[in-house]
Design goal:
Strand content: 15-25%
Strand order of the largest sheet: 1-12-11-6-7
Shape: elongated
Structural class: alpha+beta
CATH superfamily of the largest domain: PPM-type phosphatase domain
Helix content: 25-40%
CATH class of the largest domain: Alpha Beta
Number of helices: 18
Oligomer: single chain
Largest sheet: 5 strands, antiparallel
C-alpha cells in the first residue's frame, strides 16, 4: 500500500543444549486500518532457568502483547496501550506464582524477561524489562538501546533485578526514537548476545541482505559455536518505508476519536445504520445497529452525554472494549469486529436477542430450583473467565445479565466497572469513586474501603441467587448504608425460607454463607458455591437438624411472640367468660 509503513522481519530460536526452550518470540504486521492505528510489533521473552514454569510465563507475555495491544483503544498512545497490557500481564503472572507451590521462591515462579519494539508512523517505541536486549544497527556495529536489569554479586554470581511477574507492580523501561527507512533493529536473548559479538551480528545482517531469517539463523549459530549453553533467540526488524511525512500528525488526529451525538433511527455512524435505541441512562446510550457490509446486527454503546466531561469516566469507557476482547467465554458478551476505520468513540458488541435477568425474574416470580441452579452456574462460569484474567466485574446485577431467547445461554454484559489488576488507572481502594457497582449488590467490604476480591463478585452472585428464589434482598437496603465495622456487625441476614416459596432448608444455609458480611466466611470459590447449591455438604445438613433458634433466630422469636399473643388472647377470653 502506497504511503504505508512497510517492514521486513527475520527471526530464529533454538533451545541450544537444553531440553526445553524457555524463550518465546512473536511478531505482528496487521493489515488495513490497524497498521496505521497500531503499527508493527515484535517481542521476545526469556524464561529463568531455575523455574520449571518460566516457559509458560514467556509464552503468556508475548502472546498477551501480540493480542491485547491490538485490542486497546485507538485513542490511546502506544506507550499507554503497551504499558496497560504489560501491567495486566505482570499481575496475572505474579498471581499464578502466588497460587502455586513456590509463592515464597520467585526463582521458581512465573517469571520472565521481555523486550518489545512497536514501530508506528515514524517512531519506534521500546519496552524493556530484564536482560534481553534491543540494538540498532549503526554501520558495521550495533548500538545497545536497552540496559540490562541484572544485579551482579561478589563471586561472579548475578540475578535479575527486574522481570515480568517478579513483583506485584511492574517497573518497565520505555523510550521513543524517530526512525528512517533502512533502520534495522535487533532483539536478542542473553544466550545470543553473551556469545555472539555485536560486530558479527552487524556483519551477518549485512551479508544476508533481505533474507533476515537467514541472518537470524547465522547469529544463533555463531553463539552456539562460541559455547552458548542457554536458549537462543534473535529477531531482526528492518524498516523499508514510512508513511508520508505529515501522516503522523494525521494519525494522531484520527486517534483522537470524536464523541458521537445522540442518534435516531436511520442515522449512520462510521457506516453503521441505527435501528433503534435499546437503553439510555446517566452512564451510557445503547443502540441496535446494522453493519451494511455483512448485514449483521450489532450493539453500539456510547458515552453518556452527562459524563463526557469526566476524564475518569472516559478512561473507564475506553477500557471496556479491550476488556471484552481479553475475556473469552460463551457466558460473556463478545465484542464485534470493526470492518471500517472508526471516527467516533463507542464500543461495538455482539447482539443477543433476549431479555435481562431483571425482566426474566418479573416474568418468572417463582422459578423452579433446577432452573435457578442452571442460570447461576452459567453466570459463575462467566465470572470465572474474568477472574482467570485477574479481573473483577464489580457490577454484577440482574440488569447486567442477559438470557438468549433462542438458546437459553446466559451472558454477562457491561464492563464499565471492571477492575483490571495492575492498571494505573484504577483508583486506590477506599477512594470515593472506587464503588462503581449498584449498591444493593455490592459486597459490604467495598463500603468499608477494603479491596475487592473474587469473593466480592461471589457476594453479588449470592444476592442475585437469593433474589431469584425469594423476590427480595438478603439485607434489604442495609448494606448501602455501611460505613463502619460496627455497622457491619449489626447486619442481620433475613432467611430465604418462606412458606410461599418453599426451598430446602440447606439451600438457605448455602445462601447465607455466600452473602456473609465477612468475605473470609463465604465460599472460597465460585465453583464451591455452585457445587453447594446442588449437593449439600455435612455442615449444611447438620445446620438443617439444628434447633430453629439457631437456624433462624428471627423466625424463632416471631413464633414465640405469636404463641404468647395467642395465649394472652385465650386468657383474656377465659377471664371475660368467668365474669
Amino acid at each position: 500500500m502506497e504511503g504505508a509503513l512497510r517492514v521486513r522481519i527475520g527471526q530464529h530460536t533454538d533451545p541450544g543444549p537444553k531440553e526445553v526452550n524457555q524463550d518465546f518470540h512473536g511478531a505482528r504486521v496487521p493489515e488495513g486500518p490497524a497498521l496505521a492505528a497500531k503499527g508493527v510489533a515484535v517481542a521476545l521473552a526469556d524464561g529463568i532457568s531455575s523455574s520449571d514454569v518460566s516457559h509458560i510465563a514467556s509464552a503468556a507475555a508475548v502472546r498477551a502483547l501480540m493480542d491485547d495491544y491490538y485490542c486497546t483503544s485507538d485513542a490511546w498512545s502506544v506507550q499507554r496501550s503497551v504499558q496497560c497490557v504489560l501491567a495486566a500481564t505482570n499481575s496475572w503472572l505474579h498471581a499464578q506464582t502466588q497460587r502455586g507451590p513456590h509463592r515464597f521462591d520467585h526463582d521458581r515462579g512465573h517469571v520472565c524477561t521481555l523486550s518489545a519494539l512497536v514501530v508506528k508512523s515514524s517512531t519506534a517505541h521500546l519496552f524493556h524489562v530484564g536482560d534481553a536486549r534491543i540494538h540498532r544497527v549503526q554501520g558495521k556495529a550495533l548500538e545497545q538501546l536497552t540496559e540490562d536489569h541484572r544485579l551482579h554479586l561478589p563471586g561472579g554470581q548475578s540475578h535479575l533485578a527486574r522481570a515480568l511477574g517478579l513483583q506485584p507492580q511492574l517497573d518497565i523501561d520505555y523510550q521513543a526514537l524517530p526512525v528512517e527507512p533502512g533502520d534495522t533493529f535487533v532483539l536478542t536473548t542473553d544466550g545470543v548476545h553473551e556469545h555472539a559479538s555485536a560486530a558479527f551480528m552487524a556483519q551477518a545482517i549485512a551479508a544476508h541482505g533481505d533474507d533476515l531469517d537467514q541472518a537470524a539463523r547465522a547469529i544463533v549459530a555463531e553463539a552456539l559455536r562460541r559455547g552458548s549453553r542457554d536458549n537462543l533467540t534473535a529477531q531482526i526488524l528492518r524498516i523499508d518505508a514510512l508513511p508520508a511525512q505529515d501522516s503522523g500528525e494525521l494519525q494522531r488526529q484520527r486517534a483522537a476519536l470524536r464523541l458521537p451525538p445522540l442518534l435516531e433511527p436511520r442515522d449512520r455512524l462510521d457506516g453503521y445504520e441505527i435501528v433503534r435505541e435499546l437503553h439510555a441512562s446517566h452512564r451510557s446510550h445503547i443502540y441496535l445497529a446494522i453493519d451494511p457490509d455483512s448485514g449483521a446486527k450489532v450493539v453500539l454503546k456510547m458515552p453518556s452525554i452527562d459524563l463526557r466531561g469526566d476524564p475518569a469516566y472516559l478512561d473507564r469507557f475506553l477500557l471496556e472494549e479491550w476488556i471484552a476482547r481479553r475475556v473469552r467465554s460463551p457466558h460473556v458478551l463478545r465484542p464485534s469486529t470493526h470492518p471500517r476505520p472508526r471516527q467516533h468513540l463507542y464500543v461495538a458488541m455482539e447482539y443477543v436477542p433476549g431479555q435481562t435477568l431483571a425482566q426474566w425474574m418479573i416474568d418468572h416470580p417463582r422459578p423452579a430450583l433446577p432452573v435457578v441452579r442452571d442460570i447461576v452456574a452459567q453466570i459463575a462460569r462467566g465470572l470465572q473467565a474474568f477472574h482467570r484474567m485477574e479481573m473483577l466485574h464489580q457490577d454484577l446485577r440482574p440488569e447486567n445479565i442477559l438470557i438468549d431467547d433462542a438458546t437459553g445461554t446466559v451472558k454477562i454484559i457491561d464492563f464499565g466497572a471492571v477492575r483490571v489488576a495492575g492498571l494505573a488507572e484504577n483508583a486506590p481502594p477506599g477512594a470515593a469513586g472506587d464503588i462503581l457497582g449498584t449498591v444493593q449488590y455490592t459486597a459490604p467490604e467495598c463500603f468499608l474501603g477494603e479491596a475487592a476480591t473474587p469473593r466480592s463478585d461471589l457476594f453479588s452472585l449470592g444476592v442475585i441467587t437469593y433474589q431469584m428464589l425469594t423476590g427480595r434482598l438478603p439485607y434489604g437496603t442495609q448494606v448501602a448504608g455501611l460505613r463502619t465495622r460496627a455497622a457491619l456487625v449489626r447486619l442481620r441476614y433475613a432467611s430465604a425460607l418462606d412458606a410461599q416459596r418453599p426451598i430446602p432448608t440447606w439451600i438457605d444455609a448455602v445462601l447465607e454463607r455466600a452473602v456473609h458480611p465477612d468475605p473470609l466466611k463465604r465460599q472460597e470459590a465460585l465453583s464451591e458455591f455452585v457445587h453447594d447449591l446442588r449437593q449439600p455438604g455435612p455442615a449444611y445438613l447438620a445446620r438443617t437438624r439444628a434447633p430453629l433458634s439457631q437456624r433462624n433466630p428471627l423466625m424463632f422469636w416471631r413464633g414465640i411472640a405469636l404463641v404468647l399473643a395467642i395465649t394472652v388472647v385465650a386468657l383474656l377470653g377465659v377471664i371475660h367468660a368467668q365474669r
